[in-house]
Specification:
The complex is a heterodimer of chains A (about 500) and B (about 475). Chain A has about 500 residues and is mainly alpha-helical. Chain A contains 21 helices and 2 strands. A two-stranded antiparallel sheet of chain A has the order 1-2. In chain A, a hairpin with a 4-residue loop joins strand 1 and strand 2. A two-stranded antiparallel ribbon of chain B has the order 1-2. The longest helix of chain B has about 30 residues. Chain B has a domain of about 200 residues. Helix content of chain B is about 75%, strand content about 0%. In chain B, helix 3 packs antiparallel against helix 4. Classes of the chains: A mainly alpha (about 500), B mainly alpha (about 475).
């Protein structure tokens, strides 16, 4: 039952937030109560028993959630990030804040389902269901060009995921699996020839590559971040919802190892290119949110390189980087909202020298930027390092190319900090208020936690990576390892 | 020694149909003395509830699966499940009509009796085990709907809709009769089971193929499968919205009940090209319905083309009756009835008293002016678009998985490609409601009866989506008990 809490608590919270509506006090109370309760509950996830009930038995679908493995790490990080994010939304959204928070919390429930699902169709239900809140947040609360951005996002996301749905149905039909459960699919799909697996893998990959995102399917992301509500809360959700890498890790690789091996050269090349491309384009951006979007695109390229190195270190690193990314990128999007609240602009050149008048804001931003660009000791470093290390074992060329993105990160990271906070101060801004400080503390704490103590989290992730690795090695998985992966 | 009964009838199986018939007659009598149609509507609802109870008792009992009149009137699992869909759709339509008739100036007391008679026809069609019963059901279903389409006598559009529907419907029926005659010529029987038996023991397969093809064409007219769908957008646009609520779900359910029966029994016994032709028709329906819906300005006409598109999705299930297509079709129609009738119910509150004003601009800002209405329509449209966890998603999974299992992967891929298009036009309405400011005065008409219909459809769409298993199991379980 503990596995259900990260889904049920946010659902209740969403209902309360919708009821609270315009009353700020009630809304802040509802969002804090819901997110803190979810965070507390998610701390008990590691080692909690799996949850399983028949859902659509006629088609072999069961509602099964397993809080073990990578899920326990990712759900905790999501829950941690949501505490300040929902608070920001409750405090700063001017019109219809209740619904904004309600959509955020609904999306949080969906994310919990995505990470914990151990039935491929249930995974899809959460995957697709979470799209609606993020679409409505963009469309109803975004800036002037939000409608074009929403349509683009909708088309990319739905186009990819509908192909994924047919592939999921075809996967069960072609492999003759008894159900959509991970364990059944892993066993049944072993007998599929490599060619069939490659086609099925490509079908799943289309949906996942859009969400990752990988070049050339990334352009929705930049518009989404640029047009989203200026508070940054919706962008944090966008960051949390980049679940494509997790989809590859938890489903596509273990179920279709031969297809993965055949297509890995293509995807690792795309990943390396995405990493470099994102970093290069980010250096030339002057719009803060577009810069963050391209920079996080670059990180997602490194995630892809880590996953498609098909090596255990890279897999661990990729998922770790996903978790770290939620904290560092999420924190920077919240900072961008705070800057916007001060000067009504996302243009980097509209700032400059504000470190003098806002030293606390500058210090915390610098900290988050350091985490973002992969400074050792902070959250992103272990993930980036392991991703590239793993990829280097199997495809050194791609790993070397992707490493260039890390250098690029130093350039745009330091550059943006310098343009925002250093140099000639034109006009002073107010420093962090006490509430803003509380909002940034969870991000900073999380960044330190993931940066300084990666071992325990990596161990949990590795329990699940082994399922994929064993499949990729082409041997029959021992029963206990499948159980670690949380199949039954 | 025992004698066979003089009349081979199980009255229990006929009870739902007979209830609808007697209620229709009672409503007609009542209408003679009572000019206020609301009393008739109440009586109709009571009759529908009684029919529901009778149907439920047969569905739950062991006697399900029997037949009356020598296999001509079947009470098997699909037929009984279709009865639920028909009763549900009719009840929703009655609730939507309740306050609308007087508002739209079409309050004639014969309205509800005609609707009940049409529902009776649908029940008979679903139960038909032979071609003559099928034709009887089809005519009982269709004639009242022709009249109801032209119910708004003050509007040329409505008259034109009724006329067009009548002429094309009559043409469709004629084709069906001709096909039935050819099938009889090939096999010497009208009863499906006997036709199949005659064909397997060496009947005239080529003649039977022609006959079955014509029967499918006739039913394709009713189901609005391309290329026989052209009547439906015009009729849906011209007919009064409460009537469209009825016919978009009940007529479609009846047509697919009959199609499914023919596809599962007779079609596999004739030349395999018939199956291919049906698959091509389904593909064309998916493409035409969705692409045409994309370019519509009016929401009503968009929903009309979307109804054509959903005939395509149902067609996927019809192609795979042996791979779970039967329960998929019944389940899909249940979900479709809830979400489509719900969408039309919301539409009936947005249009003015002349049934005009369904442009997408009229929906702008509805999220602020009528939040409840906007939320309900959002759920219905997203469900029609197949977004989880709503009923339309589970239905889509069922029909697509039936098609994939039956080897129609290409058709499933086409269906998915067109579904992306579908989501764009559904979402356009949602976007107008939430992302734009109001451009017109918010619709002022309120009707608690329509609100009840919307609330029921909304609850059904959400609950069936979150818990799809029980109804799927119920249909399958009943089927398994019948040795399907």
């Amino acid at each position: 039952m503990i596995a259900l809490l990260p889904l049920l608590v946010p659902l209740v919270g969403a209902a309360l937030a919708a009821l609270a509506g315009e009353r700020r006090g009630a809304l802040v109370a509802a969002s804090l109560a819901s997110t803190i309760a979810t965070f507390a509950a998610s701390l008990f996830l590691p080692g909690a028993p799996a949850f399983q009930r028949a859902w659509l038995p006629g088609l072999g679908v069961s509602f099964s959630l397993d809080p073990g493995g990578a899920a326990s790490v990712l759900v905790v990080v999501v829950a941690l990030v949501m505490v300040p994010t929902a608070l920001v939304a409750a405090l700063t959204v001017e019109e219809r804040p209740g619904r904004f928070v309600a959509w955020l919390l609904l999306a949080q429930a969906g994310l919990g389902g995505i990470f914990m699902a151990r039935d491929l169709l249930v995974f899809y239900v959460f995957w697709e269901g979470t799209l609606i809140p993020s679409l409505l947040l963009l469309g109803a609360y975004g800036l002037e060009k939000r409608r074009a951005a929403t349509l683009k996002y909708l088309t990319y996301a739905v186009g990819g995921s509908f192909v994924m749905l047919v592939t999921i149905l075809a996967l069960k039909a072609l492999s003759g699996a008894a159900s959509f459960a991970l364990a059944d699919l892993v066993l049944a799909a072993q007998d599929l020839p490599a060619g069939t697996q490659a086609w099925l893998f490509a079908g799943l990959a289309l949906g996942m590559a859009v969400k990752l995102p990988l070049w050339p399917l990334h352009s929705w992301l930049v518009d989404l971040n640029e047009q989203n509500h200026p508070s940054g809360a919706a962008d944090v959700l966008g960051t949390l919802y980049k679940v494509g890498g997790y989809g590859f890790f938890a489903w596509a690789l273990p179920v279709l190892p031969l297809g993965a091996e055949r297509l890995a050269p293509l995807f690792i090349a795309l990943g390396a290119f995405t990493a470099v491309y994102g970093a290069v384009v980010a250096t030339s951006q002057t719009h803060l949110k577009r810069l963050l979007a391209y920079a996080s695109l670059s990180h997602m390229g490194i995630v892809a390189v880590g996953v498609f190195g098909l090596h255990v270190a890279g897999l661990n690193g990729a998922v770790y980087l996903l978790a770290a990314q939620m904290l560092s990128t999420g924190g920077l999007f919240v900072v961008s909202g705070m800057l916007y609240a001060r000067r009504r602009s996302f243009d980097v050149d509209a700032y400059g020298g504000i470190a003098k008048s806002a030293p606390a804001l500058a210090a915390l931003t610098l900290f988050l930027v350091f985490a973002f660009i992969g400074v050792p000791g902070l959250a992103n470093f272990p993930g980036e390092f392991l991703s590239l290390l793993g990829a280097y074992q199997t495809s050194p060329a791609a790993a070397v190319v992707a490493t260039l993105a890390v250098i690029g990160a130093g350039v745009y990271g330091v550059n943006v900090y310098q343009r925002l906070f250093l140099g000639q101060q034109r006009e002073p801004v107010r420093d962090l208020g006490p509430v803003e400080l509380y909002v940034l503390v969870p991000f900073v704490a999380g960044v330190l936690w993931l940066g300084l103590a990666p071992a325990a989290q990596l161990e949990r992730i590795e329990a699940q990576s082994q399922v994929a690795v064993v499949q990729l090695a082409g041997t029959e998985p021992p029963a206990d390892e499948l159980a670690l992966g949380g199949a039954r | 020694m025992t004698f066979p009964p003089v009349l081979d009838v199980d009255w229990g199986h006929l009870a739902p149909a007979l209830t609808l018939l007697t209620t229709a007659a009672a409503c007609l009598l009542l209408a003679l003395f009572q000019r206020d149609s609301r009393l008739t509507a109440g009586t109709a609802l009571i009759g529908l509830f009684t029919a529901f109870v009778f149907n439920l008792s047969v569905f739950m009992s062991d006697s399900a699966g029997g037949a009356s009149f020598g296999l001509r009137y079947l009470a098997d699992a699909p037929a009984l499940a279709f009865n639920f869909v028909v009763i549900l759709g009719t009840a929703l339509a009655v609730l939507v009509s309740y306050d609308q008739l007087s508002r739209m100036g079409m309050d004639h007391p014969e309205y509800y009796p005609l609707m009940l008679l049409s529902a009776l026809g649908a029940v008979v069609m679903a139960a038909a085990g032979d071609l003559v019963t099928l034709l009887l059901g089809l005519e009982v279903l269709s004639l009242p709907v022709y009249v109801l389409s032209a119910w708004r006598t003050s509007a040329r559009q409505s008259e034109e809709a009724g006329m067009k529907y009548f002429l094309l419907g009559a043409f469709g029926s004629a084709v069906l009769v001709y096909g039935a005659a050819l099938l009889y010529g090939a096999s010497g029987s009208f009863v499906y089971a006997e036709v199949v038996a005659a064909l397997t023991s060496g009947g005239l397969v080529s003649l039977a193929t022609a006959g079955a093809a014509l029967v499918l064409v006739g039913l394709g007219f009713k189901a609005a499968l391309a290329p026989f769908h052209q009547w439906s957008p015009d009729v849906y646009t011209g007919a009064p919205t409460p009537v469209v609520t009825f016919m978009s779900v009940v007529v479609k359910a009846a047509a697919f009940a009959a199609l499914l029966r023919v596809a599962a029994t007779v079609a596999p016994e004739v030349s395999p090209w018939l199956q291919t032709a049906l698959a091509v028709a389904v593909a064309a329906t998916l493409v035409v319905g969705n692409l045409a819906a994309l370019v519509q300005r009016g929401v009503k006409r968009m929903l009309a083309y979307s109804a054509v598109a959903h005939a395509g999705y149902l067609g996927l299930a019809v192609l795979a009756p042996d791979h779970g297509g039967v329960e998929a079709a019944v389940w899909y129609l249940t979900a479709y009835t809830l979400m489509n009738a719900g969408a039309f119910a919301v539409l009936s509150l947005v249009v003015d008293r002349n049934d005009q004003g369904d442009d997408i601009e009229r929906f702008a800002g509805l999220g602020q002016t009528r939040p409840g209405l906007a939320l309900a329509l959002t759920v219905f449209l997203l469900s029609l678009g197949g977004i989880p966890p709503l009923a339309g998603f589970a239905g889509k999974v069922m029909v697509f998985s039936a098609a994939v299992e039956a080897g129609y992967l290409w058709l499933a891929l086409l269906g998915i490609a067109t579904s992306v298009v579908a989501l764009v036009y559904y979402f356009r309405v949602v976007a107008a409601m939430y992302f734009r400011r109001p451009e017109y005065a918010s619709p002022s008409f309120r009707s608690s009866a329509t609100d009840v219909a919307i609330a029921a459809a909304l609850a059904g769409t959400v609950l069936l989506g979150i818990l799809p298993g029980w109804w799927h199991d119920a249909i399958r379980g009943a089927q398994a008990a019948l040795g399907f």
